[in-house]
Amino acid sequence: MSVLYRPRPSVVRRDSGLYGYERALARRGFSPIAGVDEAGRGACAGPLVIAAVVLGPVIEGLADSKLLTPARREVLHDEIVARARAVSVVVIPSDEIDRRGLHKCNIAGMRRAVAGLGCDLGYVLIDGFPVPGLPAPSLAVWKGDQVSACVAAASIVAKVSRDRMMTSLDERYPQYGFAEHKGYVTAAHRQALASHGPTPHHRFSFVTVNSVMRSGAGIEIGDNGVGAGVA
């Protein structure tokens, strides 16, 4: 019979810094440690992007990606990719989210991101909620991107990777303002949906997009079921 070993209970002090979880786990022999986080869960357009990171040398200035300026995120992203022991990014497109459901895609994407690291792991720290079926013991950490260095690194990689994709989409669909709101629901995004209808990159299962489709405001429905703006 196989036995799953977990760390002995311990307390990570609030003042232990962003590397507190990693140090506590490493002292008990659980290393390397991967952090996992996603970006785009609440958006109504664009992909869900999940990143997993195993850090190497200490990277100064890590923090929850939402607390950093875009310019600082870009700098840290490139430093993480260059210096981390392993980085894995999984991109789940909007049509797959519609077909399978957001939470199922998130769980499956986190498993894929961890598997994509390509190294044996001692422990996995996940932002927010537990993920069964990982190849190592794991812990879901509430606001993990604010209290764990490897989760913060994963949040930065996921956020910057997705932002770059949405900026690229903005070049193809400039009337939607994707470079500004990154696919999240804003007044300007709602207005663009009402005026032009959804793009193939919108999530048709989300209420904001679905309500526009049902109302038909400013939209002609083509044979493929995708809305097109009325000229």
UniProtKB/TrEMBL annotation:
Pfam families: RNase_HII (PF01351). It comes from the Bacteria. Residues 31-218 form the RNase H type-2 domain. It catalyses: Endonucleolytic cleavage to 5'-phosphomonoester. CDD domains: RNase_HII_bacteria_HII_like. Its cofactor is Mg(2+); Mn(2+). It is an enzyme of class 3 (hydrolase). It is found in: Cytoplasm. GO terms for molecular function: RNA-DNA hybrid ribonuclease activity. InterPro entries: RNase_HII, RNase_HII/HIII, RNase_HII/HIII_dom, RNaseH-like_sf, RNaseH_sf. A divalent metal cation binds at D37, E38, D127. Its EC number is 3.1.26.4. Manganese or magnesium. Binds 1 divalent metal ion per monomer in the absence of substrate. May bind a second metal ion after substrate binding. Keywords: Cytoplasm, Endonuclease, Hydrolase, Manganese, Metal-binding, Nuclease. Belongs to the RNase HII family. This is Ribonuclease HII. It comes from Sphaerisporangium aureirubrum. The gene is rnhB.
